[in-house]
Design a protein that fits this description.
single chain; about 325 residues; mainly alpha; 2 strands; globular
Amino acid sequence: MAGGHISEQAPARGIETARPSWWFLLYRHVLAHKWVAAGLALALLAVVALFVQSAFQVFSGQAAAGLRLALYGGLAGFVATGLGALPALLLRRLPQQIEDSMLGLAAGMMLAASAFSLLLPGLEAGASLLGHRGSGAAVVVFGMALGVLLMLGLDEFTPHAHDQSGPCGPGYEICGRVWLFVFAIALHNLPEGMAIGVSFSQGDMGVGLPLTTAIALQDIPEGLAVALALRSAGVSAIYSVLIAAASGLLEPVGALLGVGLAGGLAVAYPIGLGLAAGAMLFVVSHEVIPETHRNGHQTSATLGLMTGFALMMVLDTTLG
């Protein structure tokens, strides 16, 4: 009787310890979120189409004018992220009110950058290209919709975690906690890099320089916040700084993608500006602002946001 009992339990233990693959979990997640998956597929198809037509021009000898500028801008974001992370070698955490104010400052600069350095140039370019302000605005709004669909889909289908809200996405159970933080950072830094690339895609310093300056400045408190979040998760000081700094590498990668998206056909430029703006606005509204309001410091975070917005407005006026 005992032997029979053991033979019945052995398969059960095997079934209990077997973990489903990430692809199975992703498939199940797609079935549960069909409309979001369809939106992500549409956005990815549009991004690939824009990128292919730009790549064709590059290979035919008509390289985008701002390719080198975009790469430099992305590298500036990477360096700023690394510099911001360095204080985490000595600090384990900041007072929550200060951290929320710093993230509010970053959110304000991203909001203003989306408006002044992406949407306004996009509206101007669209109107000039199509000869009608309404048609130009429609092209930019189409780009914004693609950016929102892209980020909504990536947020839903990428396993990641935030310091306050915890893990989410398909298969987060089979990922280490550090990797979940790394994926969350990627969702923040990729659209910032894309925005830099799109802004330099026509070689226009008046558009690209203010935006790159703003993103690099807000990357400093963001890099520190990421490193401190990793330290709070139990990662050592040196690894927290290295991981936070390495996350900044997604900015030059995103910059190259962005200049590829908007550096081809003329209409791709206002679409690309709208796409980058939509992606950044999604990140600010969906991730950054809620994160700063979770701890009861809404006033400090809002004042930080207003300061960041005003600072970016001055930068755009001065450097644009």
